[in-house]
Design goal:
With about 270 residues, the chain is α/β, with parallel strands linked by helices. About 40% of the residues lie in helices and about 20% in strands. The strands form two sheets. It has a seven-stranded parallel β-sheet with strand order 3-2-1-4-5-6-7, sandwiched between helices. A two-stranded antiparallel ribbon has the order 8-9. A hairpin with a 5-residue loop joins strand 8 and strand 9. Helix 1 packs across helix 7, helix 3 packs parallel to helix 4 and helix 4 packs parallel to helix 5. The termini are far apart. Bound molecules: nicotinamide-adenine-dinucleotide. The site of nicotinamide-adenine-dinucleotide has 27 residues, from helix 1 and strand 5.
Length: about 270
C-alpha cells in the first residue's frame, strides 16, 4: 500500500466520470484517507456517496471563487483529518461561448472567469490549505495539451492551461523550501462533464485515438494511477513537472491519419 497512512484533499469530483474520481479511486486502493469538496448543492448529493465509496465522511462545500469557503478549509481539515499529505486540484471552467468560434473574440469577462477559476484557484487553494499541509507533501493539478499547443475550440482554456503550467513551476519553487512538491498531469481527452463544453469533442477523442502511439484514449484509471505516483513518496524527487498521460499523443510531430484528394480518411503513409 503505497499511500498507507497518507491523507489528502480531493477538489474537483463532480461525478464518477471525473478525473478526480479516478485519482481518488487509485489513492484509496493504495490506502489513502481523503476529504472531498463539492461546488454547490446540486453536486453535493453526487459527491457524498462517492466520498462514502472511498470510506470518507468528510465533504466540504468549496467554490474556489468564494474566499469564505477557502478561509474555512484548513480549519475543517484540521478538525477531521489533522495535517494532510496531498492536495488534488482538478478544477477548470470557462463560459461555453468562449469555447466556440474564434479566440480573437474572447470577452474580457470570459477571459477573467477562465483564468480565475482555472488558474488562480491553484494558488488560492494551495495557500488556504498550506497551514495543514505536511512537509514532504504534494500538490497536483490537471492540465491539457491545449496549453502549450493550439487545439481547435480550446481557445481561452488553452491560455489558462499555459498559465496553470507556469504557475506549477513558480509554486514548485516557492514550496520547495518547505519540501512540498507541485506537479501537473497533462491528460489526454476524456469524456467528462467539463469536456462536454468543448466543441467537436467526439472528433477530438477519435483524432487522439487514431493518432496516438498506443492507439487508444486514456481512461480516468490511467490518469489516477499516474497521479497516485506523483502524490506518493515514490515521486519524492519530482517537482515542477508537467507529466503527460495521453497514450503518447503529445510526442507526435505528424499524425498517422490524413485525407486523400476526395476527402476520404486514409493512413498518411499510404498517401501518394
Ligand atoms: N476531460 C478532459 O479531457 C481533460 C483533459 C485534460 C485536463 N483536464 C482537466 O481535468 C480537470 C478536471 O476536469 P474533468 O475533465 O474531470 O471534468 P469534471 O467536470 O468532472 O471536473 C471539473 C470539476 O471542476 C469543478 N469546478 C468548476 N468550477 C468550480 C469552482 N468555481 N469551484 C470549485 N470547483 C469547481 C466542478 O465542480 C467539477 O467537479 C480540469 O482542470 C480539466 O481542465 C480534463
Amino acid at each position: 500500500m503505497i499511500l498507507k497512512g497518507k491523507k489528502g484533499l480531493i477538489v474537483g469530483v463532480a461525478n464518477a466520470k471525473s478525473i478526480a474520481y479516478g485519482i481518488a479511486e487509485a489513492c484509496h486502493a493504495q490506502g489513502a484517507q481523503m476529504a472531498f469538496t463539492y461546488l454547490n448543492d446540486a453536486l453535493k448529493k453526487r459527491v457524498e456517496p462517492i466520498a462514502e465509496e472511498f470510506g470518507s465522511k468528510f465533504v466540504y462545500e468549496l467554490d474556489v471563487n468564494n474566499q469564505a469557503h477557502l478561509d474555512g478549509l484548513a480549519g475543517q481539515i484540521k478538525k477531521d483529518l489533522g495535517e494532510i499529505d496531498f492536495i488534488v486540484h482538478a478544477v477548470a471552467y470557462a463560459p461555453k461561448e468562449a469555447l466556440e468560434g474564434e479566440f480573437v473574440n474572447t470577452t474580457k469577462e470570459a477571459f477573467d472567469i477562465a483564468m480565475g477559476t482555472s488558474v488562480y484557484s491553484l494558488l488560492s487553494l494551495t495557500r488556504a490549505v498550506l497551514p495543514v499541509l505536511k512537509e514532504g507533501g504534494s500538490v497536483l493539478t490537471l492540465t491539457y495539451l491545449g496549453g502549450p499547443k493550439f487545439v481547435p475550440h480550446y481557445n481561452v482554456m488553452g491560455v489558462a492551461k499555459a498559465a496553470l503550467e507556469s504557475s506549477v513551476r513558480y509554486l514548485a519553487h516557492d514550496l520547495g523550501a518547505k519540501n512540498i512538491r507541485v506537479n501537473a498531469i497533462s491528460a489526454g481527452p476524456i469524456k467528462t462533464l467539463a469536456a462536454s463544453g468543448i466543441g467537436d469533442f467526439r472528433m477530438i477523442l477519435r483524432y487522439n485515438e487514431v493518432n496516438s502511439p498506443l492507439k487508444r484514449n486514456v481512461t480516468t484509471e490511467d490518469v489516477g494511477n499516474s497521479a497516485m505516483y506523483l502524490l506518493s513518496d515514490l515521486a519524492s524527487g519530482v517537482t515542477g513537472e508537467v507529466h503527460y498521460v495521453d497514450c503518447g499523443y503529445n510526442i507526435m510531430g505528424m499524425g498517422d491519419v490524413a485525407t486523400d484528394a476526395e476527402g476520404n480518411t486514409i493512413l498518411a503513409w499510404d498517401a501518394k
